[in-house]
Amino acid sequence: MTPFIAEIIGTAIMILLGNGVVANVVLNGTKGKDSGWIVITTAWAFAVFCGVVVAGPVSGAHLNPAVTIGLAAAGLFDWALVPEYIAGEMIGAMVGALLVYIFYRDHFKATEDEWGKLACFSTAPAIRNISSNLISEIIGTFMLIFVIYYLVADATYSPGTSNEVVIGLGSIGALPVAILVWVIGLALGGTTGYAINPARDLGPRIVHAIIPLEGTDDWGYAWVPVVGPIIGALIAAGLYLLLI
User: Which helix (H) or strand (E) segment is 39 a member of?
Assistant: First the structure.
């Protein structure tokens, strides 16, 4: 398995389980209907855990373009590998979203709430104020990336060598990252649904636009969970480099 394939598989697992729990809570007729935010944030945390466990030994399990860009900006990852990783993350996110649709297809049919169905794919603000929403995504992603730096600071990435040490989420073990995502969701996720990951939002949103589901894809908002996390990652990188 190559890093590219590992990012596809790891991200697909994360999205299947992460967006899957949203579908379980939001869609009509499920066993988890209306079980709430604690269920969503907890399952999302362990969705990240599962993706990291699988992809970590091969790619470092970034599973997130903001992580990939943030590590590269801090000098902890090779910029030449960034396009390959982001492509894998986007493909994996789309595959995971498609699997959620297939798995919950009958429940999508039983649900009339178009915004609820979109929530099973991508994020949306609780109160639509684009500047505030953008700040939420910037701060949430800043916290994700800034803490990750201190978890992986001693790792290096030397592809092709016999003593390769993979940098990224997998190099620190999956559980600390799951805890980090969990607390971000609980503390900072209430405003925008804490995308904190461009692929996690954009890939499934594209799938939602392709499959036969009624309702808006909300493209007017779609740039916020892409641009916000990238800005947050770059700010985290700048502060980290300043401090060290």
Answer: helix 37-59
